């Protein structure tokens, strides 16, 4: 068993934003081509808590030859109360299994893998939908780990310039976020803390929303027509607004469940016709989004386990090539040197 720690994952991913985006791009395409197995995520909600949950995301992707690929699971906990204790909200591991024997061979700390794949999917969507960062500026609603990574990955697609406007329910956290964000944006970029989330939506045509909201609260009236809203936290936009926009998801069946804004929109209309396309179909050229006058585009990725596996496999390969991680021989019965997955 190869075990790769948080610090090692961080070092192995450092400066590899483009490679991660490419891995996520490939995983989306393979999934759209039917080369994946992707059961619904399992939500373990703990009784007597304030929304704390642990989610299991099993997945499998087939490689180019139909036989290679990877299988495994991400097990991620979301405990918003951790923030008050100075701990990250999310903690996670990924287990990768052998495609030949089914035996688990790699255990990776996955909070950075999870944040990276989410941010990479956002940056990929911005590029694919023609809304990469430009001189009109970029907005971020929610100043946590996810949006910081989104900013990093957006900068890997195109320079973040002109202005960066952020909002957080904690103004001090927003100010601290901007201080940390300064090295990621182009020189001369205006850095502003907005008084409301609506002010962010009004300021820029590209906005990422990543909060811990559990019930919708955000209207899109302030958005300029043609804007792209990266709705990463899935439960911020009120259903009445989201059904009036152009909607792109990662997988319809996954995104329209668990009381997401899209799920509530389906309940409102009784159908899913307000969803225009999946990002996989856009990448493959099967569909396109033609923005109607007065409307905006909303990208709502549920967060597919195949993306976690794609990024975890990238980290695993880098770890093996660089002699990183700790190998535990004999972790499994009959396992002496654990060499079958080394490459």
UniProtKB/TrEMBL annotation:
UniProt GO cellular component terms: cytoplasm
GO biological process, one term: siderophore biosynthetic process
Example GO molecular function: oxidoreductase activity, acting on the CH-NH2 group of donors, NAD or NADP as acceptor
Source organism, top-level taxon: Bacteria
UniProt EC number: 4.3.1.12
Keyword terms: Lyase
Coiled-coil intervals: none
InterPro entries: NAD(P)-bd_dom_sf, ODC_Mu_crystall, ODC_N, SbnB
Protein name: Ornithine cyclodeaminase
Record organism: Catenuloplanes indicus
């Amino acid at each position: 068993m190869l075990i790769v720690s948080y610090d090692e994952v961080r070092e192995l991913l450092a400066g590899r934003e483009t490679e991660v985006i490419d891995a996520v791009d490939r995983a989306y395409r393979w999934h759209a081509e039917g080369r994946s197995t992707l059961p619904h995520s399992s939500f373990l909600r703990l009784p007597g808590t304030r929304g704390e949950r642990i989610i299991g995301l099993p997945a499998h992707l087939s490689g180019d030859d139909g036989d290679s690929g990877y299988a495994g699971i991400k097990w991620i906990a979301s405990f918003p109360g951790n923030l008050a204790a100075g701990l990250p909200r999310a903690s996670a591991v990924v287990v990768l299994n052998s495609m030949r024997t089914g035996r688990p061979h790699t255990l990776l700390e996955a909070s950075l893998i999870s944040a990276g794949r989410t941010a990479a999917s956002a940056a990929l969507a911005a590029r694919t939908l023609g809304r990469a960062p430009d001189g009109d500026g970029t907005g971020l609603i929610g100043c946590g780990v996810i949006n910081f990574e989104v900013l990093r990955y957006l900068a890997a697609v195109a320079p973040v310039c002109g202005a960066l406007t952020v909002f957080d329910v904690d103004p001090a956290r927003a100010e601290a976020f901007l201080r940390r964000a300064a090295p990621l944006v182009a020189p001369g970029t205006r850095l502003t803390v907005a008084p409301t989330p609506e002010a962010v939506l009004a300021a820029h045509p590209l906005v990422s929303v990543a909060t811990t909201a559990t019930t919708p609260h955000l209207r899109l009236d302030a958005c300029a027509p043609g804007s792209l809203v990266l709705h990463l936290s899935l439960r911020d936009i009120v259903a009445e607004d989201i059904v009036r926009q152009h909607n792109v998801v990662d997988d319809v069946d996954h995104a329209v469940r668990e009381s997401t804004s899209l799920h509530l929109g389906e309940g409102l209309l009784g159908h899913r016709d307000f969803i225009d396309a999946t990002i996989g179909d856009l990448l493959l050229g099967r569909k396109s989004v033609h923005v109607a006058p007065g409307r905006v585009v909303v990208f709502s990725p549920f967060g597919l386990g195949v993306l976690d596996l794609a990024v975890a496999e990238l980290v695993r390969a880098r770890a093996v090539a660089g002699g990183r991680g700790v190998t535990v021989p004999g972790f499994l019965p009959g396992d002496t040197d654990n060499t079958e997955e080394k490459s």
